[in-house]
Amino acid sequence: MFRVDPLANLEPLIRRVYSYVAYRVGDGPDAEDITSETFERALRYKKSYDASKGEPAAWLIGIARRCIEGRPLSHELSSEHLETADHRDLEDDALRRIALSGAVGRLEERDRELIALRYGADLTARQIADVLGAKTNTVEVALHRALGRLRAHLEGGDSAPVRKSQAGR
Amino acid sequence: MRSWRRNRETGLEAELRANRPEPSRELVHQLEARVRQDGRQARGGFRVAFVSAIAVGMLAALGSVGGFAYAATGVGDAVAKATRIVHVHGVTQVHKSAARDQYGKPKAKKCRKGTKRVKGKCRKVKKARGVNFRKPPFTG
After folding, report:
1. Which residue in chain A has the smallest CA separation from B2?
2. pLDDT-derived band of residue B42, with 50, 70 and 90 as boundaries?
3. Where are the domains of chain B?
4. B6-32 pLDDT, tens per residue?
5. Which of B3, B16, B31 sits opposite A14 (nearest CB)?
6. Which domains does chain A have, with CATH numbers?
């Protein structure tokens, strides 16, 4: 039987996985480590990839999710990076990028994951539903709400992580 | 002023896509090299398996049409020819040559009358006593 190589078109896959991981844990060495670990696992279990169950990107994102779950991380790093970088005289787009990643970092874990899956890994709502084991409609609604909360953070300029403020609810 | 404030309803998703974190070039190269190395190892194993399969297939095909006996005969012939070519002969003596004819045959010494050559030496021939063979009479 002829097998499909899930890592045939590698570079876009690396970019998508890294973007997803970086949206989840923050841009930097942690994200690089998790991306490397993801591809190591993908190489090890390449034979278990089933093309009928989904695209290689979705398969890799599933592996990346498990890598993130099995790894203790300091999520506050991205916020610190934002504060120190804010004082520098950076270009407007660089500032915007930092502010955006900071706002994503302040979102709840669930919202951040949805944003990462949709805009980092570039998965469709249906693919996200497959990854999370939810309905497509539920994913679309949750994503819409997550975007609303992100917008509120960006407009409010609130620097405190939402996760901490909402923990008491 | 931040751009998402200007077009916040439509631009945020585009902003998220456009400004998504990108991996460093080193990371991309490192991972590509790692995957390539793994692929090379896998291809090596595949090649060995492929060549083995081809060899087994050819042997099966040959065996089915009696190719082994044909091949064995061919090999036997080839070995025989090679042996004949490679075999080291001793010094060849040409017994009948012009040089030998030049000097003629070596003369063998004649034995004296009443002697006979026995094992290279001339010895007396003893007549058996009392035994006389008469010639049969001439009858014309």
Report:
1. A96
2. low
3. 22-86
4. 444 468 888 888 888 899 999 999 999
5. B31
6. 10-69 (no CATH), 77-165 (1.20.140.160)
Q: Is B69 on the interface with A (CB under 8 A)?
A: no
A95-124, pLDDT tens digit by residue?
787 888 888 888 899 999 999 999 999 999
- How many interface pairs between A and B have CB atoms less than 8 angstroms apart? 80
Residue B53 neighbours by CB distance under 10 Å: 10
CB contact at 8 A, B126 and B115: no
pTM summary value: 0.59
Distances, alpha carbon A119 to alpha carbons A30, A37, A63, B20, B90, in Å: 19, 21, 18, 7, 91
Q: How far apart are CA B53 and CA A114, in angstroms?
A: 49
Are the beta carbons of B27 and A32 separated by less than 8 Å?
Answer: yes
Report yes or no: B28 at the A interface, CB cutoff 8 Å. yes
